[in-house]
Specification:
globular, Rossmann fold, 810 residues, single chain, 14 strands, Arc Repressor Mutant, subunit A, alpha+beta, 8% strand, 62% helix
Length: 810
Amino acid sequence: MSLIGNALLKFEDYEIDRARWQLSWRDEPVPLTRKTFDLLMYLVDHADRVVGKDELLQTLWPGSFVEESNLSQHIFLLRKALSRHESGVKIIETVPGRGYRFAAAVTTDPPATANRMVLSAAESITRITVEEEVDGPDSITPVGRSEAYLPAPAGNRRAYWVGGVVAAAALCIAGWFGWQRWLDHTGGAPVQVVLTPMEGTTGDGVLDKSLTQAFRMDLAQSPYVSLVPDSTVRATLSMMTHKPDEVMSSATAREVCERTNSQSVLSGSLAKVGQHFLLTEEASSCVDGSVIGSAKYEADRPEDLPRGIDRIAATLRRKLGESRRSIARFNMPLLAQNTSSLDALKAFTQGLEADRKGDSVRAIAFYKMAIAADPNFAYAHYSLATTSCNAGDFATGRAESAKAYSLRDTAGKQQAFAITALYNVLVTQDLYESLRNYEAWTGLYPNNASAWNGLSYVRGNLGRYADAVVSDRRALAIAPQNQNFLNTLALSLIQTGDVEAARKTLDQAVAMKIDDTYIRVRYIELAYLLHDQALMRAQKEWSDVHPTTAIVLMTQAEVATAEGRFEDAKKLVARSTQLYREQGVEGAADQYTKTMGIEMMEAGDASDGKRLFSASAADPEEGEEVLGLALAGNITAAQAAVRAMQTQYPKGTLWHLYWGPLTQAVIDLQEEKAKEAAAVLETARPIESRELVVSWLRGNAHLAAGEPALAEADYRTVVSHPEWDPTAPTLPLCWLGLGRALAAEGKRSAAIEAYQHFLTLWAHADADATYLQQAKQEFAALQTVPLAESISRTKHAAKAQLRSVTANLR
């Protein structure tokens, strides 16, 4: 089957507009790369059969040797793009050993212009045919012909007419395909460029920086030309023993270009001649410095300069090899894209500069100035939202994010993706929609490291750690010296259990002199996961040399809590909190103190845990702190907070699938409704791997409900995956729970082993720790009393465990 022509193709609420090269779902455009769109069209046109992999490779990459993994990647991207429908139909089917099949039912619908286009063609052909047939006895003999010009027989005239139609149609088709090839012609593989600051002779340094930022915004729209991030440029300059913010000479820029595996350097200037301005920009090769292309623009007023940046960017994108179709599709003018006010652009640029230097107060002030100059400046609203959140003002962050989202259609494609990503995190909290946005973003802009990093964040929050590793590696391949990417990759590797690769990543960061506090936090988590005492001592020694690293001390407190060393934990929390307050970071001090209070309550130190948690007011919009309210026995406040958040965020993934069920389960267990607690925790099963507490609580509930086999399964989930949350106190407690479940099942020897494992993990616990005392008594009874009596004691201990945390709080 071949669906020829420009008819609209419809299936499962998707629509393909072949004439516009556009896939949409319920009138919302779905971004696809050109190759992925070609794959979709080929599968649709051959939907009556299975299309083999070799056939697809030869069709999509004619005359080229391409690995099958390239095809698999595009199949993956296509399936992600076609994942919005609700029917459950698998649109792209894999037929093992044969290939792929397009399985959805397709209907066709002619576009609105189709009938008019056909009519015009018919009129044109008819007119030409009539003129050719005006031949008869009274006709004028053409010049140069001596013989009589005889009319063709009637039958031949019809043949000529049909032939003319066919020839004209063939010419139209050939011309259309030739035009398409011309539009899609590129200079080869996508390019990466280093952008140097614009040199100015106007005396207005802010104007020069603003135009450089404007040029960066314009180029960022391109899926073909990618910019080396500023952070990577600064890190590269540092490795070259240059100052990170120094003005680069042409030789220095070329070396940065080579070190970052880029292909071109873009350098420009702004000159003022009388009352006129001259903008110039040049792209040169990293290899030999030869000029690849240049562009210039003259302006009479400063306000016209952004328009000049638009035109220069489009010209250089074409000279760097981007296709005309791509430039037309991803080339929203700067004035429509961001702001019609040069003052707004200048204030925005100053905000970015302040943000980069960590001065959030000045950055927020500049962003507000930009918005005052142009209230429709979408990316200024977005930047104000992110900086406000980083400063702890989430209310402003959510409001500005919503405003930016309402203006996203005025922004460039990359900026629209970023705006939507923040909106999904702050305003809707819909992680699954966020996942689709990031996958579309990385599919269209595969060289954007921030997009890959964001995709990793969402995948990690959903407990998809192996997928997060893939995203982290892609981000790090683009920006190999980014310390945040190294840190997140190490964490993702730990959470997949690939400890060897995690250790190698951390060692690599230290060797690159990217040795910050979060790298040391990852080392501590890895050391505790491996029970590597030498590695743990090394981190303690590092901490002693760097005594102001509060987050490292707080991580050491987590380890102490997980080992039942509550006195040590309290001292570490006190030191860490004092450091945070001395450094003026009150919010972090309060947040981490409450987190430690929650972990201590979970680990059995109810009184100290409640004291730490209650040292500052709980935030009813933070899921972990709402759970803390429930653990502390404040049931009314916890339930009210969950209801409010589930109402405010009807699509909030974590509130509906994680924090809500967890909080209710804690309340049910306190009220001795074990079966209800186990049932509500089934809701959290799809994302339970994000932390260990879900399986632990469900195991406790099954054990209290007299279902030890089900409890055993939940506890084994945790002890089989300590890498999900290495320093969680629930990990050793699951060994205790497992021992109790096995004892209740009459599996004495296996139960003894589980108890021994718990006692080993808590070998240095405080002597009066509640769970340690319980475990020792139960373990002794398990070894000495008859099995039936031991089982009875274990069941009683399981119920007592559920009451132990809250008993001291009432």
